[in-house]
Amino acid sequence: MDNSVASVATPARTIGVDLPLSVDFALIGHQESWRAAADVLAVLRGPERTPLPDDEIKDILPWIPPRAVCHVDVGSIVRTKSGGARARGLYIDSFIPPDRLEAAYVHENIARVRKAAACAIQAGAKIVSLGGFSSILIEGNFDQLPERRDTVFTTGNTLTVAFIVQGIQKMCALEGRNLRRSTLLIVGATGDVGSGCARCLAPIVKRVLLSARNLERLHKLAAELQADGVQVEIATDLQQFSAEADVVICAASLASPSLLLGRIASDAIVCDAGYPKNLSPTAEMLDAKVFFGGLGQITGGMKFTPDFHGVLNRHPFPDVVHGCLLEGMALALEHRFEPFSQGRGFITQERVAEIETIAARHGIYLAPLYNADGPLEDGLDARWNGREDESIGRKTKTKSNSVARYFGRRENWPAYPIFAPGVNTDR
Amino acid sequence: MEPLIDVNRSLRECTSLSPSAPIWQDILAQAMTGEILAAMNYTSLSEICDDPAEVADALEHSECERGHAAAFAAEGGKIGVDVANNVGAKHWKRLREAFLRCITERDFIGCLIVQEIMLESFAVASYSRVGKVGPGSLGETFARIAAEEGEHVDHAMSILRAERARDAQRFDDKVYRLHLDVMTTLAKMLAKECKDGHCEVCHANCVKPSLFEVSLSAAELRGASLQQYLKTLDLLGIPGEVTLTWITQLPV
User: Are residues B99 and B111 in contact, defined by beta-carbon separation less than 8 angstroms?
Assistant: First the structure.
């Protein structure tokens, strides 16, 4: 980056708020719960007005056409003569109702994503990240997106995979586990994210269990991994596996948190990388170490206009965003306006390493680990270098009491389901 | 302007009618009142136009809206009900007053924004929904009039887009000012419940709770109307994040 702003923005002309007209990146997302949707509408409605009742929100939201919700200004740790490098973007919500993520609404939802994409193109975004179900809907069908000349689209899945893999490695280190002796289960294994995780982690675990709905794709992925000497077992039913997994990645595209893992090691490390979350709230995993995966943290600063901090990114740590959206931001900061992640099954270790390097160059790292009960570690020392071997055998207890530094009392923590505009699952 | 239907005329007995006739009666009454108000607005608009072509255009629109009102009255007759109208009803009166303020200021653009962007958005969207579920010719009439109102909007859009191109900030400020005035009233009209008491158009109790009996709902009509309004504002070029804020701040 050779200047302080990735693109020159025209002065604002909107009412009441100074906003730039042209943007470097756009993030397309949707709300994963009605509570999250209510919070977004509450910010727009303003503190002086009574919040909309829940039934009114459910009545109104499905009628809102996709549109920009706020501007997002992201900073890099790269220093220039005029200060830190920055990129300007838009968050565009497709306003897919949280209870309409099922297959029955696929055509309606694709139409919404197309309209959101048209908003991004009209805004002049050079790169667009497709968050959450947006990329699932368009995956492999990028020709379904509107005609565009100077706008590229990325699913952001490669950086999501990077942060899932880093999270698994970090959690293993924190728990004193040796990943090389682990049996890894991936749920949603044939998706873009699931298969990317398999390619990255299979070479460094003892055994891999792959689960997905499509048996043909499972066979194909298994063959690919076995060709590299990996011990692989596949099943469409989680109960069919012959071994218990002690490391689990949940990357299925589920419309709601409904996954019950069944037979896994009682103290398994479980990464829920779904958006919406995969794991059912009724899943009983008392001794399992569950964390939310695929999340990164921006250390160069992030600003929402209007202020949606803690609303569009409902995490117990500041400036945490899902990897899929961060990929577009990182590429914008890097001035690499290219469709880095497209289609399904193209995520390799090399591509993951490349996007990790780009993100890290701009101060975007794995986010501190947390789950529905709160943080699992101290967020102020969150940077992780991804080398799990250095920590093997040095058991460090995960923390759960550092949240007060950011949010004070526990009742002030953002409530489950945790929200941020999009993580890609089962792709 | 002479009312098409005498508001004091007693309604026909509905005892032998289909169970849904009283519901359609009120839906038709609201639509007819809106059309008569639109006719009055266009007549008023003709009085501030300088260009004879614009005067003729406004008067033609007025006649067209009267024709719509007459068509709604006729549909009532077909199902055996009298269709009342009441442009003096509290909400409609406020909408008329908002328009007349633009007339007083000789604000041609303001008049178009109120009538074509705000009132017609609601008419097009709600008539379209009614057109889909209305029985026989009643449904067809709503659908036909929705299409004709849509053409009115198209005509006005070119004028308004040109006006916005001259000074977008000034134009958007004007739309917002009128939005606060007019859309607040429309939002109250389309709220799921009439919290301010009887609307003075429905012939008996509020029709909203009964709409489900004819496959409609107040929530659906409001949602479709707000969506149409947002899409119309998008076509004008007003930023989506701005108009999103506007509609989320409306009363419910």
Answer: yes
Cβ atoms of A169 and A291 within 8 Å: the answer is no
CB pairs under 8 A between A and B: 67
End-to-end CA distance of chain B: 33
* pLDDT per residue as tens digits for the range A141-182: 777 777 777 899 999 999 999 999 999 999 999 999 999 999
| Contact (CB<8Å) A68/B249 | no
Give the pLDDT band of residue A426 (cuts 50, 70, 90): very low
Predicted confidence (pLDDT) per residue in B51-63, tens digit: 999 999 999 999 9
Nearest residue in B to A42, CA atom: B248
**Is A56–B252 a contact, with Cβ atoms under 8 angstroms apart?**
yes
Return the CATH architecture of domain A159-295+368-412.
3-Layer(aba) Sandwich (3.40)
Check if B167 contacts A (Cβ < 8 Å).
no
For Cα atoms A143, A147, A153, give the angle at the middle one, nearest 5 degrees: 60
Who's near A16: CB < 8 A, 6+ residues apart?
none
pLDDT at B13: 44
**DSSP code per residue over A126-186:** SEEEE-THHHHHHTT-GGGSPP-SS-EEE--HHHHHHHHHHHHHHHHHHHT--GGGPEEEE
User: For residues B26 and B194, is the Cβ–Cβ distance under 8 A?
Assistant: no
Angle in degrees, CA B87, B243, A9, rounded to 5: 150
Q: What residue has token string 């991804």?
A: A386
The partner residues of A248 in beta bridges, in order of sequence, read: A185, A270
Q: Please compute the mean of the pLDDT values over residues A101-120 and round it to a whole number.
A: 92
**Per-domain residue ranges of chain A:** 25-156+297-333, 159-295+368-412
What does DSSP say about strands A127-130 and A25-29: parallel, antiparallel, or unpaired?
parallel
Give the number of other CB atoms < 10 A from CB of residue A233. Answer: 17
B210-226 confidence digits (pLDDT tens) = 899 999 999 999 999 99
pTM: 0.85
Q: Quick check: A146 contacting B, CB < 8 Å?
A: no
> Please, are residues A418 and A315 in contact by the beta-carbon 8 Å criterion?
yes
Kindly tell me if the per-residue pLDDT of B166 is higher than 60.
Answer: yes
Q: What percent of chain A has pLDDT over 70?
A: 83
What's the count of helices (H) and strands (E) in chain B, helices before strands?
10, 0
Domains of chain B: 21-248 (1.20.1260.10)
**Across the interface, which of B192, B219, B245 has its CB nearest the CB of A44?**
B245
Could you count the other beta carbons within 10 Å of the beta carbon of residue A181?
A: 11
Task: Return d(Cα A363, Cα A327) in angstroms, integer.
Answer: 12
- Residue A411 confidence (pLDDT) above 70: no
- Say yes or no: A65 contacts chain B, CB-CB below 8 A: yes
- CB neighbourhood size of A331 (10 A): 29
For residue A47, the distance in angstroms to the closest alpha carbon of chain B comes to 11
ipTM, 2 decimals? 0.88
